[in-house]
Amino acid sequence: MSLISVSSVENGELSDPAHWAVADVVNYFKATGFEEQANAFQDQEIDGKSLLLMTRNDVLTGLSIKLGPALKIYEYHVKPLQTQHLKTNVS
């Protein structure tokens, strides 16, 4: 069962997170196994552009989520999404 919304997926691949709405960010984290923590992104109104600007410290302290999940969210999701965005948007 995939919870990733249609607007965050293009041709079977994740679309550019810079275009994600808050709901897309929330759905992405729910679909990747962080259902409980996804609500923190909703509460803080983190859309795709905000997600791409987040630092490690923002994720660890700004979202009020437990350290273990916060580390995994940053290292395995936020940082790779930022890297992917930079690689695909270099002029």
TrEMBL record:
Q: Which GO terms describe its cellular component?
A: nucleus
Pfam families in the record, alphabetically? Answer: SAM_1
Name of the protein this chain belongs to: Sterile alpha motif domain-containing protein 13
Q: What is the lineage of its organism?
A: Eukaryota, Metazoa, Chordata, Craniata, Vertebrata
- What organism does this protein naturally occur in? Triplophysa tibetana
Q: Which PROSITE patterns match?
A: SAM_DOMAIN
Per UniProt, residues of the SAM domain are 20-68
Q: Which SUPFAM superfamilies match?
A: SAM/Pointed domain (SSF47769)
Query: What are the recorded GO MF terms, alphabetically?
Result: chromatin binding; histone binding
Concerning InterPro entries, the annotation shows: PcG_chromatin_remod_factors (IPR050548), SAM (IPR001660), SAM/pointed_sf (IPR013761)
Listed GO biological process terms: negative regulation of DNA-templated transcription
